[in-house]
UniProtKB/TrEMBL annotation:
GO BP term (any one): phospholipid biosynthetic process
Cofactor: Mg(2+)
MF annotations from Gene Ontology: ATP binding; kinase activity
Organism annotation: Cryobacterium shii
Residues of the DAGKc domain: 16-146
Entry similarity comment: Belongs to the diacylglycerol/lipid kinase family.
Protein name in the entry: Diacylglycerol kinase
Length: 336
């Protein structure tokens, strides 16, 4: 008998020995008793050991609990919370061997929408967490420079934005958002829609020569679907190793009509079929697209910035780049 035979005959680690789930939950978003009962049922059915539990707080929206879960050797972290909780946990999980499973909760659920996960079926989401398959997606990292020259680092999974969307989020009433969901953004949109000020900035995309530009809104998207079935960036993909830059430059009412026609009709309707995609036009004057892997942008004055639907104060400059396939997410086993 050879040494190879001896090695092959040795006892092997049970497939379930390395499996351990952790739940990171926002206590405001979940019914903890119901969630624990549902997790226990799925955990038992899958033959997994006792699940670990970590609670977020206003002071720590997810990074600290994620670090504790990773240190405890969790193989999958189930995030029960809104977009902010998902983003905070992903900040620590990206680049590790741990997988992220989503239990959508909140008004946006932006990453779940773009992964085409169920949004209102907790049982299905938990079943996916314990029995689904892994999918590698890109993560965008960003350094934000503030007016006092301090720099902070974050990740975003869906979009970063300057201009209209960031101002809208800064003007959204949190109490109304909790009661009325996305209707709260309508009130904020009306408030900022009267603001015709422009962003004035210099930028460098993928090391190309620096350029100057004036625009109403700039968005950097890792993926392109928004609530209400709005396809802002129909060609964006979570696993293409690049982000898409959207620049809005409307001039009066006609410019906004161009943007709405492009986003709601071409992106939202025509892009759903092969024939429709052939009928799509290119960029219009009010709406331009670009694709890249690194963007450096410096603003003429401090401007509001948002990450994955949450306001992040004001920025005077940013550097953002893509880390391809650096986050593992759990999707249904029958997903394409």
């Amino acid at each position: 008998m050879t040494t190879t035979d001896l090695h092959n005959d040795a006892p092997t680690e049970s497939a379930t020995d390395s499996l351990l789930a952790a739940v990171i939950y926002n206590p405001v978003k979940v019914n903890l008793d119901d969630l624990k009962a549902a997790v226990a049922a799925e955990q038992t059915a899958a033959g997994w050991p006792e699940t670990l539990w970590f609670e977020t707080s206003e002071e720590d929206p997810g990074q600290g609990p994620a670090r504790k879960a990773i240190e405890a050797r969790a193989s999958v972290i189930i995030v029960a919370g809104g977009d902010g909780t998902v983003r905070a946990v992903a900040e620590e999980v990206a680049g590790t061997e741990c997988a992220l499973a989503l239990l959508p909760s909140g008004t946006g659920n932006l990453l779940a929408r773009n992964l085409k996960l169920t949004l209102d079926d907790a049982a299905h989401s938990l079943h996916t967490a314990f029995t689904g398959k892994d999918k590698a997606i890109d993560v965008c990292r960003i350094k934000i420079e503030r007016a006092d020259r301090s720099v902070d680092k974050h990740v975003y999974l869906v979009m970063a934005g300057l201009g209209l969307d960031a101002k809208m989020l800064a003007n959204t009433d949190d109490g109304l958002k909790a009661k009325a969901g996305w209707l709260a953004y309508v009130k904020a949109l009306v408030a900022v829609g009267k603001d015709d000020s422009e962003l004035n900035f210099r930028y460098r995309l993928d090391g190309k020569p620096e350029q100057s530009l004036r625009a109403h809104t700039v968005m950097i998207g890792n993926c392109g679907s928004l609530p209400a079935s709005i396809e802002l960036i129909p060609d964006a993909a979570l696993d293409d190793g690049a982000f898409d830059v959207v620049v809005m430059k409307p001039k009066g009412l006609g410019g906004w009509i161009q943007i709405l026609s492009k986003v709601l009709w071409e992106n939202g309707v025509l892009s759903r079929t092969a024939l429709g995609r052939k009928l799509r036009t290119g960029d219009v004057d009010a709406l331009n697209y670009a694709t890249g892997k690194e963007l450096i942008l410096r603003l003429h004055r401090p401007e509001e910035i948002e990450l994955d639907g949450d306001g992040y104060g004001t920025a005077v400059a940013l550097k953002t780049w893509v880390e391809p396939g650096s986050l593992t997410v759990r999707v249904p086993s029958d997903a394409e």
